[in-house]
């Protein structure tokens, strides 16, 4: 059975969300951005953006 494009899109976004959540957990544990990027498959820039968002939301 062939999966629909909508289904594949939802799956792709869910996987990306999971990677970001894992990266946030690693940031909270103090791992380096480079290690997080390598381990999750996110770019260094994406991990840095998550770190900034996390810092901003924890200050509020």
Would you kindly provide a written description of the structure presented here, covering whatever features stand out?
With 60 residues, the protein is an all-alpha fold. The protein has one domain. Helices cover 80% and strands 0% of the residues. The protein is built from three helices and no strands. The longest helix has 24 residues. The chain is elongated and about 45 Å long. It starts with a helix and ends with a helix.
Quickly describe the structure.
The chain is mainly alpha-helical and 60 residues long. The chain is built from 3 helices and no strands.
Give unreliable regions as ranges.
none
Count of spatially separate domains: 1
Number of helices: 3
Mean of the pLDDT scores? 93
Could you tell me the number of beta strands? Answer: 0
Q: Find the structural class using helix and strand composition.
A: mainly alpha
Rg over C-alpha atoms, rounded to the nearest angstrom: 14 Å
Termini distance? 47 Å
Helix-strand pattern: HHH
Summarize the main sheet. none
Broad shape:
elongated
Which bin fits the share of residues in helices?
over 70%
Name a few traits of the molecule:
60 residues; 3 helices; 0% strand; elongated
Topology overview:
Blueprint: H1 5-28, H2 33-40, H3 44-59
């Amino acid at each position: 059975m062939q999966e629909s494009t909508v289904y594949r899109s939802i799956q792709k976004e869910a996987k990306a969300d999971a990677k970001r959540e894992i990266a946030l957990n690693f940031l909270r544990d103090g791992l380096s951005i480079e290690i997080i990027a390598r381990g999750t498959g996110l770019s260094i820039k994406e991990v840095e953006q998550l770190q900034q968002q996390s810092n901003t939301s924890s200050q509020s």
